[in-house]
Design brief:
mainly beta, repeat, about 35% strand, about 90 residues
Length: about 90
């Protein structure tokens, strides 16, 4: 567990190992990494995101009903997430 200051208060966040979705599902997406490394929103599903590593894209799923927050690059609670597609 790690803590950080967020909007003037202390916020604790859990770090999860996120599952990679089956390769057949990821292969259908044809995602091209905008940068060689990083986390990027999935425009088709805000419960998933793309993890790019050395220009290889891996579709990951947020745990427990969380949504990917592209502004801060983590899975977050819906009430804390700003999404243009929600």
């Amino acid at each position: 567990m790690k803590s950080r200051l967020f909007n003037g208060g202390l916020k604790t966040s859990l770090i999860f190992t996120l599952p990679t979705l089956p390769s057949k599902l990821a292969a259908k997406q044809n995602f091209i990494c905008p940068k060689p490394n990083g986390l990027f929103k999935n425009p088709d599903n805000c419960k998933t995101f793309w993890h790019c590593s050395n220009n290889s894209a891996f579709l990951k799923q947020c745990p427990g009903g969380l949504l990917f927050d592209e502004k801060i690059g983590i899975c977050n609670f819906k009430s804390e997430t700003i999404q243009s597609s929600i």
